[in-house]
């Protein structure tokens, strides 16, 4: 790959790869949109954009998004792609007096502090979409900041991963030959992609809009989510056609009972797919299923034909190597580095791999989801894989509680399985897992709070789990650490600092606020019905706060605060009366 030092000598890279511009680049509501038409729409929108960027491209229509991306690139504006369009997410991205603006196809979008530009694409006379009107395909500077993919971490603060235009072009250039070969064709020309994944997501961007713009395919402009919508979108486009989806969407589609149209191949990403589900999908939909492996940091870097092999093969000239690095406990910890081809810099992966050579590997699980139970090690990904392989389980996820009183982790499983009992699920897991990993509790729920990509984030699952346990009358436990520099210690007391009871109660209230079901039970103005302070709490103390919802008409919540094994405080909150409000 070209180094940064000689980037100024690199010729611009075209917005669209060499292709027949009169052929469809996209399909909107069953109607084809040519490459000429796309370039004309890009030209017109670019003329309307502000002088400065960047732009938040929030268009949900995939074609409108692609036009916005092309127009921004033509003006030299980077496109910011947030994980969602919630008002609080957008507010964090707005800067007072800044130049950031929004492109949207939703006239009702609420974007505080940001100027919104509505992308309104009219179906005009096709005669305007000619080479005479459009002119040459615009070239984009190879080193131009093209997009920043914004992901939400556990804190909810978007983390930006900037991509240059040459990186995106190289990403697709490496993937297209592999996919074409697996598809059994010389190129992807003529193939139409129907994607269930948002185009603002790394995988959704690479495998729909960019795969069409830079590899000769076409894409459907919609983003179907429900099974009937996916079927309708597939039936609205001609063959050859491909379904770009996730394990969650695919499983939901197969369980829907709807008659499914044939596809010529499928792409899946965001989570490993079980061989059983892959085989079911190939039988039901007719085409081979190809999994894509990658990350927001690296882009798509490997593929596998799931029913043919468990081994992943790197794309292009990408290599992976293992190195040892200091772990959190001071011991050496292994990590895996990806480099080469379009990857801008050596990048550590978040997964644990089994290397076969520098271009092939097996995936063992996420590095951050390894768990230890009774001296045994596994991963949440491994447990979830076996949970979701049980016939009758439509969706499921393991969750590890934050804290337990006896020091032994006891996994909890949340399962969508209308026709199975908790006991039958536990029995099936005993046949698949070591005994220590079989959950003592299986809670059957209507749905899991997955994102549009099918992902289930750690924070979202934790909040969901706490709410479910509270609703079941289960004890909910959270841990909190008392800072050594807590301001209350200044006056309580010199030489023997103690945390006053009022501050212990404040810690309990903060813990209650983290459990929506308990907070809703107590209302906006909870009343302290009783409190006992039984042992001192000093600087740096680790507190375990246990909260138990009461079953009586008072709908109160009892609590205990332990400092290690010592009960430091206990009491009870109830909902405040109307006179308190």
UniProtKB/TrEMBL annotation:
This is Long-chain-fatty-acid--CoA ligase. It is a peripheral membrane protein. It is found in: Membrane. Pathway: Lipid metabolism; fatty acid beta-oxidation. Pfam families: AMP-binding, AMP-binding_C, ApeI-like. Its main location: membrane. Residues 387-455 form the AMP-binding enzyme C-terminal domain. Residues 472-571 form the ApeI dehydratase-like domain. InterPro entries: AMP-bd_C, AMP-bd_C_sf, AMP-dep_synth/lig_dom, ANL_N_sf, ApeI-like, ATP-dep_AMP-bd_enzyme, HotDog_dom_sf. Keywords: Ligase. PANTHER family: LONG-CHAIN-FATTY-ACID--COA LIGASE. It comes from the Bacteria. The lineage of its organism: Bacteria, Pseudomonadati, Pseudomonadota, Betaproteobacteria, Burkholderiales. Its EC number is 6.2.1.3. Residues 48-312 form the AMP-dependent synthetase/ligase domain.
């Amino acid at each position: 790959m070209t180094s940064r030092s000689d980037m100024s000598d690199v010729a611009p890279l075209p917005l669209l790869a060499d292709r027949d511009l009169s052929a469809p680049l996209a399909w909107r509501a069953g109607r084809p949109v040519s490459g000429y038409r796309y370039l004309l729409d890009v030209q017109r929108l670019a003329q309307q954009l502000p002088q400065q960027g960047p732009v938040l491209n929030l268009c949900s229509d995939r074609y409108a998004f692609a036009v916005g991306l092309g127009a921004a690139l033509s003006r030299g504006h980077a496109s910011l792609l947030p994980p969602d369009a919630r008002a609080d997410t957008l507010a964090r991205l707005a800067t007072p007096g800044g130049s950031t603006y929004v492109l949207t196809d939703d006239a009702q979008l609420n974007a505080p502090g940001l100027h919104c530009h509505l992308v309104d694409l009219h179906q005009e006379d096709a005669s305007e979409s000619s080479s005479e009107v459009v002119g040459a395909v615009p070239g984009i500077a190879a080193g131009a900041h093209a997009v920043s993919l914004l992901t939400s971490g556990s804190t909810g603060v978007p983390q930006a991963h900037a991509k240059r235009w040459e990186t995106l072009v190289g990403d697709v250039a490496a993937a297209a030959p592999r996919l074409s070969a697996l598809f059994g064709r010389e190129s992807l020309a003529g193939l139409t992609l129907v994607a269930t994944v948002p185009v603002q997501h790394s995988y959704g961007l690479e495998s729909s809009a960019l795969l069409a713009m830079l590899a000769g395919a076409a894409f459907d402009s919609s983003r179907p989510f429900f099974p009937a919508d996916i079927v309708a979108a597939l039936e609205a486009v001609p063959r050859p056609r491909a379904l770009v989806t996730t394990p969650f969407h695919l499983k939901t589609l197969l369980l829907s009972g709807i008659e499914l149209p044939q596809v010529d191949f499928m792409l899946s990403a965001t989570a490993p797919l079980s061989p059983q589900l892959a085989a079911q999908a190939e039988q039901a939909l007719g085409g081979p299923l190809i999994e894509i492996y990658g990350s927001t940091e690296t882009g798509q870097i490997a593929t596998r034909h799931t029913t043919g092999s468990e081994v992943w093969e790197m794309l292009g000239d990408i290599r992976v190597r293992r190195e040892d690095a200091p772990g959190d406990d001071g011991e050496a910890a292994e990590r895996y580095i990806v480099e080469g081809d379009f990857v801008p810099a050596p990048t550590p992966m978040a997964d644990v791999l089994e290397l076969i050579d520098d271009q092939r590997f097996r995936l063992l699980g996420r590095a951050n989801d390894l768990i230890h139970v009774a001296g045994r090690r596994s991963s949440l990904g491994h447990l979830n894989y076996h949970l979701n392989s049980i016939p009758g389980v439509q969706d499921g996820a393991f969750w590890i509680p934050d804290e337990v009183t006896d020091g032994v982790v006891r996994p909890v499983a949340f399962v969508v399985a209308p026709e199975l009992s908790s006991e039958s699920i536990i029995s099936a897991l005993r046949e698949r897992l070591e005994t220590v990993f079989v959950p003592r509790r299986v809670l059957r729920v209507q749905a899991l709070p997955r994102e549009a990509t099918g992902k289930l984030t750690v924070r979202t699952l934790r909040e969901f789990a706490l709410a479910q346990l509270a609703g079941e009358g289960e004890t909910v436990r959270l841990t909190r650490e008392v800072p050594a520099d807590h301001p209350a210690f200044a006056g309580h007391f010199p030489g023997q600092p103690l945390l006053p009871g009022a501050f212990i109660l404040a810690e309990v209230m903060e813990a209650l606020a983290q459990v929506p079901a308990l907070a809703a039970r107590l209302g906006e103005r909870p009343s302290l019905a009783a409190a006992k302070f039984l042992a001192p709490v000093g600087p740096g103390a680790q507190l375990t706060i246990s909260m138990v919802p009461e079953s009586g008409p008072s709908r109160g919540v009892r609590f205990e605060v332990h400092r290690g094994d010592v009960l430091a405080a206990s009491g009870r909150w109830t909902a405040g009366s109307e006179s308190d409000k």
